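Appendix B, record 7
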Amino acid sequence: MPNASARKGYTGEAQVVSILRDLGFKAVRAYGSDGRALGEASDIDVKATKGDITLLIQVKRRKKIANYLKFNNANVVAVRQDRGQWVYMLSEEVFKDIFQTEMIIEEDYEPDDSMADAEALASAGWGTDEDY
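Structure tokens (predicted):
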């Protein structure tokens, strides 16, 4: 019989697979929580595909999540370590909203000027994310 931690991990992985399948993904749990069973890196627990989208998921179930990672009034939490890449955590509601709808990609998409403000601030000496 697996220990309580292993059972909790397996249950979490099974729940994520079920949610993804409900959203129309073909989702599978890696045997033994080892992504190599799916042809992926060993830290992958779940692989899900839908159209040309592939999600490689590492499932973490914790008794308690650090306070700074809680959503409070937000529905997305963005966090990064110094000089690292941003990691985005979505609430379950937002995650489902995104993947329940068909993704619309505009062929003639042109970026807006939203980066102009950031560039103006940087040129005024306010620095960039890498400075912090």
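Remarks on this record: The helical segments are 4-22, 92-100, 114-126. Residues 1-62 form one domain.
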